[in-house]
Design a protein that fits this description.
Keywords: Hydrolase. By secondary structure, this protein is α+β, with helices and mostly antiparallel strands. The protein has two domains: 2-201, Hotdog Thioesterase (Thiol Ester Dehydrase, Chain A, Roll), CATH 3.10.129.10; 214-306, Thiol Ester Dehydrase, Chain A. Helices cover 30% and strands 30% of the residues. It contains eight helices and twelve strands. A twelve-stranded antiparallel beta sheet has the order 1-2-4-5-6-3-9-12-11-10-8-7. A hairpin with a 3-residue loop joins strand 1 (61-65) and strand 2 (69-75). The chain is globular.
């Protein structure tokens, strides 16, 4: 009950500041948030990152929108916060991943294509403010360049008006031929309302991020001094059924060690991991690898730089 009240107070404060300036998302952005909310393929965003829209009782809202820039609200889930209050870069990139995709790229693209991540990199600025558990943040997303198949986004994270971190997000804009035909071609005028009604009928994933911790979420098994394994489940996946890019960022940060916060991180996606797979995460000399435990195939690679 206490955690519910904390989340409610945090959300009310954030909503009160921005209630008058919330702007409407386009139909594609609304669809992808709706798909994420109840998709049977994955629950990481809504259940653990509190990536839920304000109208559903969550902290996310689009508050500014132009042709090449958006500003949206989000919230740092308590399980992601550091005890020392230093900004947790992996968690911030996890929040940026979904917000810059649905509240950014899906708004910028003429066909509403959110794309899939190619890489996500970021750095905490010098003298960044502390981030308390459950605090509200704002994520600015700017389109640097967009084309038929690729897009590059520049992001900034703010807390109470102070700059916390900067990030870059590269997107590949083709998801799946059938999906793109239904959702991002002229057929979307007929298909999108039908698909939206279907996802609206699904039971939303309840947010549980105020009463858990990283070990309870991922259950990492230490196999070597510098390596651990994680059984990937739907709880770790996005709405399309692959390991959530934000989950990969958080796992990479955890592999780098929790004693020092990260100053910078660059995460690249080579191939996805599905529910049922085993992720093997290892770290050596500032490089983190996430591979398929069964095949050894490289899935994510990250370079990390601890703060001084």
């Amino acid at each position: 009950m206490a955690s519910v009240l904390r989340r409610a107070r945090s959300t009310v404060r954030m909503n009160a500041r921005r209630a008058q300036s919330t702007v409407r998302m386009n139909n594609w952005a609304q669809f992808y948030w709706l798909q994420s909310r109840g998709s049977k393929a994955g629950a990481f965003g809504p259940a653990l990152l509190d990536q839920n829209l304000q109208e559903w009782g969550g902290p996310v809202s689009l508050i500014e929108k132009s042709k090449n820039h958006t500003l949206a609200t989000a919230r740092l889930p308590p399980w992601c916060a550091r005890r020392d209050g230093r900004p947790p870069l992996g968690a911030l990139l996890a929040l940026i991943d979904q917000v810059s995709t649905f509240c950014g790229q899906a708004e910028f693209d003429g066909r509403g294509r959110p794309g899939v991540s190619l890489f996500l990199s970021g750095e905490v600025v010098d003298e960044a403010p502390s981030l308390e558990s459950g605090c509200g943040i704002e994520i600015s997303t700017r389109l640097l360049k967009g084309g038929r198949t690729l897009a590059w986004l520049a992001c900034e994270v703010y807390a109470d008006g102070e700059l916390v971190a900067r990030a870059r997000h590269a997107k590949f804009l083709k998801i799946d031929p059938l999906h793109d035909l239904l959702v991002h071609s002229p057929l979307h005028n007929a298909a999108l309302p039908i698909l939206s009604r279907y996802y609206a009928s699904l039971e939303p994933h309840p947010y549980v991020g105020d009463d858990t911790c990283l070990d309870a979420i991922f259950k990492p098994r230490r196999i070597q001094e510098n390596a651990f394994e994680v059984d990937i489940t739907n709880d770790h996946c996005n709405g399309l059924g692959g390991l959530h890019g934000g989950a990969a960022c958080i796992l990479a940060e955890h592999a780098a060690g929790d004693d020092k916060p990260l100053a910078a991180m660059h995460v690249s996606l080579m191939r996805g991991l599905r529910a049922g797979a085993v992720a093997r995460v290892s770290q050596e000399a500032g490089r983190v690898s996430i591979v398929d435990g069964a095949t050894g195939a490289a899935c994510y690679e990250a370079t990390v730089s601890p703060a001084s």
